[in-house]
Amino acid sequence: MQPVHSLREIVRYPLKSCQGESLEVANLEALGIAGDRQLILAEMDGRFISARRDPQLLLTSVVSSGDSWIATHPKTGSLHILPYTSALSDVQIWGRTISAPRLTTAEDWFSSLLGRPVQLLLNNNMAEDKAAKRYPWGPIFSDGYPLLVCNSASLEAVNAASGGDFQMARFRPNLVIETDRAWTESDWCRIQIGEAILRREKPCERCVLVTRDPSTGEKDRQQEPLKTLTRLGRQADGAVLFGENFSVEVPGQIRLHDQVHLLD
């Protein structure tokens, strides 16, 4: 088994749609990186909230601090989020319903940030996936899969074709693998990084969120890099694709700059 690539970035997003938290070491579990998408905001009727409608979330930093979190936004200051839960509530994520406990003591801060009442939910051992066909990895606040893996050479191809200088943060990956060939991640089946073995599940469909600058929340007037991805033919059944969704076949620890082994 020869190493073929290396791990360039490890990123988790404690709150769905917030800024990423760069890591040097991470434990991969059934739901992905420990602590990833552990929190989610929802409307009072249960619809999940994302930066597609509320781009100010892209400017919100949520950093894990032991068993709690520190949320920070340039306009509203900081909040210490404690894991004190209340009654269960339902959140709908792309047609799936998950019942999870609310962190009601932190909701006023996020309601003030977004300008309307919202819920803050926690994915812990009380959470339950109510879908008729449940995911084998359990209830999950990400868009269905434990890990999003992107390839550095694929981003370079997009930048070369568009004439832009887009950062990988636009695509919100968990793992960035350094390679010398664009789109090669689409050919992988199983890979090993450190102690963990990952299985590719499906390509990642991209939406207009990638047209927003993650550092400012501003939308690209030319609809880039989504426009270039379409022109490059990165499509399937009308969906624009970038990166691959993976599941965790064998849990374990990974480290920045680990070698990536292609198993099959």
Q: Write out the strand line-up for the largest beta sheet, numbering strands in chain order.
A: 1-14-13-18-16-15-20
> What is the fold named in CATH at topology level of the largest domain?
M1 Pyruvate Kinase, Domain 3
**Average of pLDDT:** 94
CATH superfamily of the largest domain: PK beta-barrel domain-like
- CATH domain class name of the largest domain: Mainly Beta
Helix content: under 10%
Low-confidence stretches: none
Instruction: Please indicate the percent range of residues in DSSP E strands (runs of 2 or more).
Output: 35-45%
CATH architecture of the largest domain: Beta Barrel
| Alpha plus pi helix count | 3
Distance between the termini: 10 Å
Radius of gyration: 18 Å
Following the backbone from N to C, one meets helices and strands in this order, namely: EEEEEEEEEEHEEEHEEEHEEEE
Net shape: globular
Q: Structural class, please?
A: mainly beta
The total domain count is 2
Overall description:
The chain is mainly beta. The chain has 2 domains: 3-13 and 20-32 and 143-262, PK beta-barrel domain-like (M1 Pyruvate Kinase, Domain 3); 33-129, no CATH class. Helices cover 9% and strands 40% of the residues. The chain contains 3 helices and 20 strands. The protein has a 7-stranded mixed beta barrel. Strands 4-3-19 form a 3-stranded antiparallel beta sheet, with no helix packed on it. The chain is globular. The relative contact order is 0.20. The mean pLDDT is 94.
